[in-house]
Amino acid sequence: MTVTKPPNLNLNATLKENTTTEVTKKPKSPSFLVTKISIFLGLTLTHHQKIRTSNMREDEQQQLQTAEELMQQLRSKATELLLREEWKESVQVYTQFIGLCQSQITETKQEASQLSKLKKSLCLALSNRAEARSRLRDFDDALRDCEQALKIESSHFKALLCKGKILLSLNRYSMALDCFKETLVDAQASGSLETVNGFLEKSKKLEYQSRTGALDLSDWILNGLRGKCPELAEYIGAVQISKSEISGRGLFATKNVEAGTLFLVTKAIATERGILSGENSNENEQLVMWKNFIDKVMESISKRQRTRHLISILSSGDNEDEVEVPDVSAFRPEAEERRSSNEKLDMGKILSILDVNSLVEDAISAKVLGKNKGLYGVGLWALASFINHSCSPNARRVHVGDYIIVHASRDVKAGKEITFAYFDMLLPLEKRKEMSKTWGFHCKCKRCKFEEGMSSKQELSEIEIGLERGIDAGNAVFRLEENMKRWIVRGKEKGYLRASIWSAYAETYGSERLMKRWGKRIPAAEAVVDSVVEAVGSDERMLKVLIEGLKGSSCGMPEMERPIKLGKGLYGKLVKKQALKSLLEI
Ligand SMILES: [Zn+2]
To answer: What does the buried/exposed string (b/e) look like for 86-106 if buried means 16 or more CB atoms within 10 Å of the residue's CB?
Structure first.
């Protein structure tokens, strides 16, 4: 899967300078720490304190601050930074404190009471550092801090609460739920009962959603899509990854589903959005967005082992036939994290992976709901990127916040590959061939094969050429319908050919003049829409024809069943009827 990227984008060169991250592990010898920390404090303390520290350094270098005094100072500094929400700085000071505290604990001659005091301080510091780290989205490290704190004190309230919040951010709902249940024991005493109950409810809701895929956006939609978008859970429905006849690996349905059924809900590894000025948007704007997007992906790779693992599973466009077929469960947020980090991921490979797998939100097979509508958005949704292109696609996607929701755009049988249209499928074969060329592949889907087989039919190309030269759309429709009878074209294949000159059908059904002339000689709009939807899935242009037809009909109550079914194919079963009607404006 490829997104349109500005040309001459020398990503390799621009990015390398920004992505070298140095990780220095600090030695833990107390004397080293004390010196280091004094310097650090000298830099971050207030002016008044700075003078005091330096004066002290001058006269009593040796007995200077005892470890205890230093710890005191570090602790209040760290707390202050935490309260000021200066997360990065607070992590630094807590790290100094924790190092010092640990070295004190391991010193042999500690009294029992002193030791337990130190352990208490350590536990709290670890929980606080976890909080600050999670604010920096450094979830792996934050989680490790919580676990370390809980090893010291298994029911430490702050550590448990923080762990639960992190697990929730990582979409590990059932683990978060367990964690909040444990937190509940001490919630009353710490005056946080309401907070904990809130998290508990949220985890329950999301855990249920992640098992069932039963998400409902009705209220949000009926409220005019205002406010924060609803909380969504990641979900993997009846799908699996297998070798694809189209290209490399693909996503397949494992059971029969009807239009609108959810296949998956996935949160982006990273997204970047912006406003592009006009149609011929400035190349620089796109370049900056891409650069930011890649930076975000790199940050996530550096912070999260799971991101690194998931990205390494994705295709880089090479050796498509030899790549491993991963189990779909690797994409579940609660899947066991791989501890090894041997996956080879250099910058060049990451860029190829992003090139092949990133998606733009505003695409022919997508709907963007909420505040991101109208923005140019690019993102990486790991599991969704296994979905290949077809000119008779059976899936569409809805973007809500950072989530992608993929659903069936028509009924899909078990074992069928799930496909999107990467480009407009309501075009004749030749036009589609041009499009697929710009995407860097040659489409061999069933519809393309069928239409290639039909290309010897003179009448077909005459109709297409005629349309380009501006012949009467009704005439083109009439001629195609008559010829299909002659050629004995049946079932889905009829839908394929109709989809190829769909614009002529839409123009005819939408024009009173053309309908007066051709209406009685061509099939009814509903029948044609049905056959095209069966062949290429739901699309709003077909829905428009249906709805306009209904509005124009004078026969009492309009028949809503068809548009509702099409609407489900368009938006998925995310919404109850009333909300769907409001989305479709009917
Ligand atoms: Zn095709």
So the answer is: ebebbbbbbbbbbbbbbbbee
Closest CA to 454 of 487, 424, 491: 487
Lowest mean pLDDT, pick from 179-193, 253-267, 533-547: 179-193
Centroid of ligand 1 to alpha carbon of 444 (angstroms)? 5
Asked if residue 162 and residue 116 are part of one domain, the reply reads yes
- Specify whether 120 is located in the same domain as 30: yes
207 is a domain residue: no
Instruction: Quote the ligand 1 centre to 473 CA distance (angstroms).
Output: 24
The tens digit of pLDDT for each residue in 515-550 reads: 999 999 999 999 999 999 999 999 999 999 988 877
Rounded distance from Cα 492 to ligand 1 centre (Å): 14
Query: Do residue 574 and residue 447 come from a single domain?
Result: yes
Residue 326 C-alpha to ligand 1 middle, in angstroms? 26
Q: Say if 198 falls within a structural domain.
A: no
pLDDT of residue 150: 96
CA of 543 to the centre of ligand 1 (A): 23
Q: What are phi and psi of 389, to 5 degrees?
A: -85, 145
Tell me the H-state helices in 490-576: 491-500, 502-509, 512-518, 525-536, 540-552, 561-571
Q: How many angstroms separate the alpha carbon of residue 234 from the centre of ligand 1? A: 30
Region 13-23 average pLDDT = 35
Q: How far is ligand 1, taken at its centre, from the CA of residue 570, in Å?
A: 20
Domain count, the chain: 3
For residue 42, being part of any structural domain is answered with yes
Task: Report the pLDDT value the prediction gives residue 163, as an integer from 0 to 100.
Answer: 97
User: What distance in angstroms lies between residue 429's CA and the mean position of ligand 1's atoms?
Assistant: 8
Boundary-marking domain end, from 390, 420, 450: 420
Q: What is the pLDDT of residue 276?
A: 77
CA 425–ligand 1 middle distance (angstroms): 8
Task: Give residue 331 CA to ligand 1 midpoint distance, Å.
Answer: 28
Same domain, 361 and 475: no
pLDDT over 50 (residue 407): yes
CA of 254 to the centre of ligand 1 (A): 23
R_g of the chain computed on alpha carbons: 30
Compute the distance from residue 262 Cα to the ligand 1 centre, in Å. 24
Which contiguous run of DSSP H or E holds residue 252? strand 249-253
Answer yes or no: is pLDDT of 58 > 60.
Answer: no
- Confidence at residue 376, expressed as pLDDT on a 0 to 100 scale: 87
Q: What is the CA(448)–ligand 1 centre distance, in A? A: 4
**Model pTM score:** 0.85
- Cβ(542)–Cβ(409) under 8 Å? no
Per residue, the 3-state secondary structure of 359-399, as one string, reads EECCCCCEEEECCCCCCEEEEECCHHHHCEECCCCCEEEEE
Res 43: pLDDT: 37
CA of 420 to the centre of ligand 1 (A): 11
Domain of 477? 429-584
Q: Is the pLDDT of residue 143 over 60?
A: yes
Provide the percentage of residues in the chain whose pLDDT is more than 70. 85
Considering the domain architecture, whether residues 241 and 390 belong to the same structural domain is answered as yes
Give the pLDDT mean for 328-348.
Answer: 77
Ligand 1 centroid–CA 246 distance in Å is 10
